[in-house]
């Protein structure tokens, strides 16, 4: 496994058949799916798989795909709720032992359900049980479904369990529903679906340092891989991510936008004013949990007016996040 990655890639292995299984694989319960964001429905399937693995003396594994199958199928890639590394971290937090990733390329997209079940699930991952949600589809043209998996298991020697869909009065929780909530700036709805606030991540970059002159220095996050909510101002909880640890850092008032008060045609930035924090964070890896949307981005007549509004945002951030834990 590549150092520092909480998951293991199956790409070469699945293409070079004679190389056999990845090392040290044990008889397993395998949860299969994109699992983007690991929302509450995914979490229920994962927890149930971990319990069954314990009961039956098996190892609980995840098999997921990268990039998202849409890319190969000619559809635009949906914005990511969580990176592969974060998905693996969340799955492991629920008790999953190993997370395997199969590169989803044009060739893999042509695999029939039988080949998928036989070559990947049984021969590589030693699956004795497969755990999926009722709506799971797999194989070329998405022709495989739960009953297909049951039939395949009967001939290949594994048991398939379908977890009842988990949801609320508006329907099952899904990655698409979480994306729609984020796109609408409904961070409480996103949190309801995900079971935790949507999080952005990135490395702190140099900004224009204008924030200092107005009394609100900000950390600028570069290359955020996760889906951004719409431009505007948000109350956030900020953590610092280290190689083997994640630590609470500060409450943050975050601005996403093009800063119309400062200039015309500026690039979009994601920047956070950290409350009660003083220190150098250039190069630090941060995780920003987006709890609530405060307002849209506005163009103020001058920096004094912007400064007064940011002070209000900060007070509002404190109020909203009072008593909230990281
Ligand atoms: C809580 C907060 C709210 C902000 N709201 C706005 C806004 O409504 N309009 C705007 O033009 N810029 C807004 N900004 C962005 C500021 O213009 C920006 O922080 C400032 O220009 C400093 O930029 P710098 O990173 O280049 O130093 C906001 C920033 C923060 C931290
Ligand atoms: N609400 C849910 N309850 C139980 N299981 C679910 C739920 N949503 C998805 N699953 C199961 O979790 C696994 C991974 O699902 P996947 O990430 O592919 O779907 P999804 O969350 O519905 O995403 P999308 O909205 O992009 O279709 C599948 O086995 C799927 O059936």
TrEMBL record:
InterPro entries according to UniProt: FAD_synthase, Riboflavin_kinase, Riboflavin_kinase_bac, Riboflavin_kinase_bac/euk, Riboflavin_kinase_dom_sf, Rossmann-like_a/b/a_fold
UniProt keywords, alphabetically: ATP-binding, FAD, Flavoprotein, FMN, Kinase, Multifunctional enzyme, Nucleotide-binding, Nucleotidyltransferase, Transferase
One GO molecular-function entry: FMN adenylyltransferase activity
KW Transferase (keyword) present: yes
Domain (Riboflavin kinase): residue spans on this chain: 193-322
Recorded metabolic or biological pathway in which this protein acts: Cofactor biosynthesis; FAD biosynthesis; FAD from FMN: step 1/1; Cofactor biosynthesis; FMN biosynthesis; FMN from riboflavin (ATP route): step 1/1
Source organism superkingdom: Bacteria
Residue runs in coiled coils: none
Catalytic activity, as annotated: riboflavin + ATP = FMN + ADP + H(+); FMN + ATP + H(+) = FAD + diphosphate
Position of the signal peptide: none
EC number, as in UniProt: 2.7.1.26, 2.7.7.2
Function field: Catalyzes the phosphorylation of riboflavin to FMN followed by the adenylation of FMN to FAD.
NCBIfam families in alphabetical order: PRK05627.1-3, ribF
Family statement: Belongs to the ribF family.
PANTHER family the UniProt entry points to: RIBOFLAVIN KINASE, RIBOFLAVIN KINASE/FMN ADENYLYLTRANSFERASE
The protein, known as: Riboflavin biosynthesis protein
Species whose genome carries this gene: Pendulispora brunnea
């Amino acid at each position: 496994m590549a150092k520092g990655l909480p998951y293991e890639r199956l790409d070469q292995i699945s293409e070079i058949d004679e190389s056999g299984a990845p090392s040290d694989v044990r008889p397993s319960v395998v949860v299969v799916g994109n699992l983007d964001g690991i929302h509450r429905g995914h979490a229920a399937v994962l927890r149930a798989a971990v319990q069954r693995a314990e009961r039956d003396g098996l190892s609980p594994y995840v098999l997921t795909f990268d990039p998202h199958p849409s890319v190969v199928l000619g559809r635009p890639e949906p914005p990511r709720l969580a990176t592969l590394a974060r998905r693996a971290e969340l799955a492991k937090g629920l008790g999953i032992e190993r997370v395997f990733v199969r590169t989803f390329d044009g060739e893999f997209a042509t695999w029939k359900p039988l080949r998928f079940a036989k070559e990947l699930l049984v021969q590589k991952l030693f699956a004795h049980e497969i755990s999926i949600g009722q709506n799971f589809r797999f194989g070329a043209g998405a022709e495989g479904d739960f009953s297909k998996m049951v039939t395949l298991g009967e001939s290949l020697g594994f048991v398939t369990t379908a977890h009842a869909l988990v949801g609320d009065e508006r329907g099952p929780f899904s990655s698409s529903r979480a994306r729609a909530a984020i796109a609408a700036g409904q961070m409480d709805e996103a949190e309801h679906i995900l079971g935790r606030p949507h999080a952005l991540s990135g490395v702190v970059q140099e900004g224009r340092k204008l924030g200092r002159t107005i009394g609100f220095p900000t950390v600028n996050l570069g290359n955020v891989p996760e889906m951004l909510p719409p431009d505007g101002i948000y109350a956030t909880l900020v953590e610092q991510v280290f190689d083997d640890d994640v630590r609470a850092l500060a409450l943050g008032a975050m601005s996403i936008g093009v800063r119309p008060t400062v200039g015309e045609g500026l690039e979009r930035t994601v920047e956070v004013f950290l409350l009660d924090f003083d220190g150098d964070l250039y190069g630090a890896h941060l995780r920003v949990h987006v709890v609530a949307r405060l307002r849209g981005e506005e163009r103020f007549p001058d920096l004094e007016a912007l400064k007064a509004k940011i002070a209000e945002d900060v007070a509002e951030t404190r109020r909203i996040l009072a008593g909230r834990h990281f």
